[in-house]
Structure formats: C-alpha cells, structure tokens
Model the fold of this input.
Amino acid sequence: MKLNAIELLIHDHHSVRKKLIKLTETSGREKAKQRRLMHDIQTQLTIHRVIEEDIFYPAFKTNGGDEITYFEAKRQHRTVEDFVLPDLLESQGHDAIFARISRQLRRLVEQHADEEEKVMFRQAREKLSKQELHALGSAMQARKKKLEKQYAQNAESSHRR
Ligand SMILES: [Fe+2]
Done:
C-alpha cells in the first residue's frame, strides 16, 4: 500500500494511540504486557519523530508552513521523549506513579497528534502538491522500514547478551 506523507503519519498516529489506550488500561499485575507495550510505544514514537523531523517537517517549513506550528511540534516531541518517557520507564514497579505518567503520556501524544492533524496537515495539503506529498510518503516509508529493521536487530542482540 502506497501512502502519501499525511496518510502515513495519520496511520502511525492511529496505531500509537491504540497502544497508549491499552497501556493506560493495564493493571499493575500485568507487568510483562506493560513492558511489551512500553517498548513498542517507545520505538514507534522515536521512529515517528525521526521521519517527521528529518523528512516531513523540513518540507513543511520550506514550503511556507507556519513556523510556530513547526517549532511547537518539535518541542512536543522533545517533551515526550526527553522528560515523560524516561520518567515512565523509571516508574516501573511503582504502580500508582506509573499509571499517572502513562495517562500523561497518552494525553500529550493525543494532543500532539490532534494538533498535527488539524493544523499542520491541513496546511501541508494546501502548500504541497500531491506529487510532493507522495514523494515524501515514499521517502518516509523507506526510512521507517530501515529504522524498524535496525530496532529489531538491536532488540535481538540485547536479548542474546
Ligand atoms: Fe509528531
């Protein structure tokens, strides 16, 4: 399936949203499930951030996309990856805190995805041609595949250690 840049990102948003809902619905007794979900969410968010910041956002900005939207989106990525995710990982085993932080992570990601979909993607549809959006989609898909492979290999080798 060939998706354009926006379809691809919306598809990713949908998938990570579902996982975050699952995470906030797990109980402290489901540690293995929590760990698996957290690992998946962390990997997905990182890959999403890389393809957006390396490929989509620069195209958005150079084609006249709003600068505040651009910087705000990057700042939201930073908040999630540098502050909330590390705290979540650290809170494993402290069920009440873990539940609070996972709800916070879910809210932040939902807000970020909503803003992208309602503001940034709408602008991108106006500023970028269909061909450009398709070319960006293909570039992002290729990068995503590469990163997924890399993460899977890393997970495997850390498993063997
Ligand atoms: Fe994003």
